[in-house]
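Input.
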Amino acid sequence: MAYTFAMIKPDAVKAGHTGSIIKMIEDNGFTIARMEKRTIDKKTAEKFYAVHAARPFFGELVDFITSGPVVVMALAKDDAVFAWRTLMGATNPKDAAEGTVRKLYGTSIGTNAAHGSDSAENAQYELSIFFPDLKN
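Output.
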């Protein structure tokens, strides 16, 4: 069993989709090892998105992710990173497969309802930001 980091973004929380997304997660065999609803401060957001710091959209990412409450989770499942990314769907909701989180609840590339780690290494990094005592 492996862990991955998952986040329900401010757009989906504000739209009232948190419960539906959590149900999808559980219905797809994930164990939610940790979960917290919180508003991310700017310093944490900058650390979270540090890989994008040099990109022109960095400020927009930080502004968006700090714009309202999010739900952060540590998900456990065999091949958790791949399984969660598959359930989320493509970054652009228009390109996402039917029945995925982003197809159902995302509205654009920027407001795409959910985040998931793209590798085991990034999962460890992202989990360490929000759940520092979690041992993978």
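Residues 5 and 74 are 5 Å apart (CA to CA).
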